[in-house]
Amino acid sequence: MKQQKVKFFAVVFAVWSIFCGPIIAQSISEITVEDAMEARTELDALIDSLLTKEPPDVVTAPAIEETPPGEIWLASYYSKRFNGKKTASGEPYNQNEYTCAHKTLPFNTLLKITNPKNGKTVNVRVTDRGPFIKGRDLDLSYAAAKDLGLLKHGVMKVVVSILPENNDNLQLALE
User: pTM for the complete prediction?
Assistant: First the structure.
């Protein structure tokens, strides 16, 4: 069966070569050097225009809302299993309060946290130390993470601003 297919295609190719070969050869032999040079010049001009100009139907992306002022930090959140456990500040962790853990900020420092993807914002108070996972800057309470839309992601970049009101502890630490 395979040999029959090979023979069939060989015959078809031979017939095609006999009838089409001279036509192709004749059309190629009629091209002059001037025609080839003109075609080359047109091709070079087309390539240059494509490389130096913007395509005509470029669509500009709509403006993206600016990120709110503040620093970009990587945030995660406390698991529910820590609810009721003592934090580094001495108070128990309450998953329904708006609190967070930070490695160095003084306890009771107030922070404004914004999810840049959806614009949601919460204010939290530093009550614990952490997170102790490389690259992460902030552990949020379950309630804060839920309101920001962080629960489904687990870890995400957030915009953090230190709130000036009631941050006497921060002022003392900075002086």
Answer: 0.57
